[in-house]
Amino acid sequence: AVVSTQSTGMNRIEDVEASFIKELLPPINHSDSHMDTDVIEQDTRTLLVYPPPPAQASITLTYADLECLKPEEFLNDSILDFYLQYIHQELISVALKQKTHLFNSFFYKALTQPIKKETRRDAKKMSV
Hints:
The protein is mostly helical and 128 residues long. It is built from 7 helices and 2 strands; from the N terminus they run H-H-E-E-H-H-H-H-H. It has helices at 13-24, 37-41, 63-66, 77-91, 94-98, 107-112, 117-125, and strands spanning 46-50, 59-62. Strands 1-2 form a two-stranded antiparallel sheet. The protein is extended. The termini are far apart.
């Protein structure tokens, strides 16, 4: 990725992010800008998959996900997961990557759900 450099010689993280995202995102067809907002919010066409296959733990963003990037909108789980994955893949050192594991935003919900009876029965059969 081409990164702009300030007079200090250091790369601004905003410049790195902007150039990286421009490289990842396919051009958006603005001729569709007349589309109804409700239609855009439900547009499940894939915008990008990051990191690209065959990488594990890829995040898929859709055109509908872009809607939450507008001012006054809340970020959705896919955008948060993408950004965490981006930071992990592109911005941190190899040493820190080896000490880090990312859980997607649904992990906590799954962790706090009660265990189903059949799962408990199966767990008893296994020696842990």
